[in-house]
């Protein structure tokens, strides 16, 4: 059975249409159940766009089943995702996750289902990644990283149970185990600072807490060589995204072969991520706070 898809939406109907169309381009869509989680308005001025999102969601077809979950109060992105993923994992044992600004490749569903099947019983593998930075490095066909993905991903119930919502405890354990430098990709990206910001109420990132949870569990995420997703939200319309094209990856045009590879973190993959983070930091220094803001929203 294909894993269900959790699709999280708020107030961007045009983005949502594009994402649904990209999912429908997957041959597996007709055999896939999709759950569209529609959050409620945080501000009165958002209500017309939210109503349009909900009307469109109710019109979606082409999947095995379409369920529209309309929240009566504003959950916000963090609660929306963590509760929605938990609900699907509890019922199905696994779930694929996309947001209303994450386009997918026509091979997205095939990729996540194949990877979920292959590593279902491997306790070392905690999630399936889909987004690959537009690095110039030649990456392996598939590879593992200790950093999970948040722009199109999949997870099993067995691993999602390890998500820790308590940022203070996560921060303390990272410090006690001397893992802050590793968490920060050897100083290339300020994940520890971001987690600390979450504990202080400066952000409400579920993803940085999931990343810390995976690292502390010595877990790994399997990635493809080519990106299965593209974030189209950096156009100024999103709640958590600014503007820019620093993260635009070309979508995969073929399904990667999932061969048997050592279940260890890829040195090539980690180096490619670290180099890309450093390039973004150089842009930050050169272009000022606007780029800095984009970078810090990576896991918002």
Tell me briefly what this model is.
The protein has 300 residues and is an alpha/beta fold.
Please provide a written account of the structure:
The protein has 300 residues and is an alpha/beta fold. It has a single domain (5-296), classed as Spore Coat Polysaccharide Biosynthesis Protein SpsA, Chain A (Alpha-Beta Complex). Helices cover 40% and strands 16% of the residues. The chain is built from eleven helices and ten strands. It has helices at 13-24, 47-59, 76-92, 108-118, 157-160, 167-176, 180-183, 191-199, 206-216, 267-287, 289-296, and strands at residues 5-9, 33-38, 65-70, 94-99, 102-104, 125-129, 142-145, 153-156, 220-224, 229-231. The strands form two sheets. Strands 3-2-1-4-8-6-9-7 form an eight-stranded mixed β-sheet, sandwiched between helices. Strands 5-10 form a two-stranded antiparallel ribbon. Helix 1 packs parallel to helix 2 (47-59), helix 6 packs parallel to helix 9 and helix 10 (267-287) runs antiparallel to helix 11 (289-296). The radius of gyration is 18 Å and the shape is globular. It starts with a strand and ends with a helix. Residues 238-244 and 287-292 have low confidence and may be disordered.
